[in-house]
Design brief:
Elements: E1 5-7, E2 10-12, H1 15-47, E3 82-85, E4 100-104, E5 110-115
Parallel strand pairs: 3-4
Antiparallel strand pairs: 1-2, 4-5
Length: 116
């Protein structure tokens, strides 16, 4: 007569059947975690595409400055408010659609230009 195993609330007729079910559970769990990781990356990629804002400060006409030193701005005059923002610089969070924001990196190179 064959011996039966009783584990938890599940009745298995033999130990091999139990081991196969455990292996299946492990594989299913790993597949679920892998799919969850892929979904997270997809969500992150969507967040990296900013929503296009209207060009109320004429930022498009200054895009040629990207990649140039921030010192290029010294001799320029702007018809609307402008601010140069560098890393670690404190700025107000108020939204002014007429204001031109020029972002520069730690080396003083202009990296982006937008309205806000």
């Amino acid at each position: 007569m064959r011996m039966s195993k009783f584990i938890g609330l599940i009745y298995f007729s033999n130990l091999e059947s139990f081991i196969m079910k455990i292996k299946l559970l492990i594989v299913a769990s790993l597949a679920t975690f892998a799919l969850t990781a892929c979904q997270h990356q997809t969500d992150t990629a969507k967040q990296q595409n900013p929503v296009q804002q209207p060009d109320t400060c004429n930022a498009a006409s200054f895009q040629y400055l990207i990649g140039k030193p921030a010192s290029t701005l010294d001799g320029m005059r702007f018809a609307k408010p402008m601010r140069l923002i560098t890393p670690g610089m404190g700025v107000t969070m108020d939204f002014n659609p007429e204001r031109l924001n020029i972002m520069a990196d730690e080396k003083g190179v202009i990296t982006s230009i937008h309205c806000s």
